[in-house]
Design brief:
Layout lengths: L7 E3 L5 E5 L3 E7 L3 E7 L4 E7 L16 H14 L8 E6 L7 H7 L1 H15 L4 E6 L5 E6 L5 E5 L4 E3 L1
Parallel strand pairs: 1-3, 6-7
Antiparallel strand pairs: 2-5, 3-8, 4-5, 4-6, 8-9, 9-10
Amino acid sequence: MSAAVEQLLTVGLGEIKTAAGSGVLMALGLGSCIGVAVWDPLMRVSGMAHVVLPAPPDSNPAGGPKFATQAIPMLLEQVVALGANRSRLVCKIAGGAQVLNSAAMRDSFRIGERNREAVLAALRAAGVRVQAEDCGGNTGRSFRLTAADGKMAVKRLGSDWKDL
């Protein structure tokens, strides 16, 4: 008898995906982007956002889920709609690397660092505490969340998966 294979849901740039009971959410190739994963252990409801930028430009306040300021409230709204309770959420984040090679670009943009700060601020404002993170450095990574058991893991470029 073979074990059932869980459905893989790839969370692309600026996307939010959710799963209830089963499935694996995965954000691939996080450079300066941040993967934000939440899981409710009682309801086994999970969600992941792939945040690209901190906030939309002033001229476009709507923005959408690619921005931390919009992605976090949208992610939380979607998992709560599936039965999750904010007070039970396990939240972990990964990404935010400094992937630009030029010193001038690296120092002036600091996108990974700014993304991390914006994600943390949005989560704090929503009353959600980050329990673990794997952010920064200059190495890209992938991030996965298994909905059935809430296991979250990170794989840095050139390394194996590591529990977060």
